[in-house]
Amino acid sequence: PTTTTTAYRWDIPGTYTYNVAPGWSLPAYNFKVKLPHGLTCNRCVLQWDWTCANRWGSSHGKQGMGYGPQETFRGCADVRIKP
């Protein structure tokens, strides 16, 4: 959690890469997260941000793929968390 307004917000560590080749199809990503013990809800919203590093840019005197402003994709889903 980062603040009281995002008390149930977690960053998922890790690095994910894939190559796009001719005839590619959309990849599916599966993430495992550890929720606080006893957390349940019937009507929750799962929000996600995916910041890419696939654009050429520069920041702090360095340049290359992934530097500078990058694309961010966002989405959400209605979920239920059962014990």
From TrEMBL:
Pfam families: LPMO_10. InterPro entries: Cellulose/chitin-bd_N. Residues 27-79 form the Chitin-binding type-4 domain. It comes from the Eukaryota. This is Chitin-binding type-4 domain-containing protein.
